[in-house]
Design brief:
Elements lengths: L30 E10 L2 E11 L1
C-alpha cells in the first residue's frame, strides 16, 4: 500500500512534528480496489486491476 512518495534525499528537509492528538476516524468500507501504478516523468499513471467486495 502506498501512502506517500517522496525522494529519500529530501527526507531531511521535512519538518518533524509531534502529534499528541487521538485520531477518532471511523468509516464503513465495502470494497477495496487493487491498482497498478506506472511512474513517468509527468507523474504516476494508475491502472485499475480488480475490485474486491468485503
Amino acid at each position: 500500500m502506498t501512502l506517500i512518495r517522496f525522494n529519500p534525499g529530501s527526507f531531511s528537509k521535512f519538518e518533524v512534528k509531534k502529534l499528541d492528538e487521538e485520531v477518532l476516524w471511523q468509516d464503513r468500507v465495502d470494497s477495496f480496489v487493487l491498482m497498478e501504478s506506472h511512474l513517468s516523468r509527468s507523474g504516476a499513471n494508475y491502472k485499475f486491476l480488480e475490485e474486491f467486495p468485503l
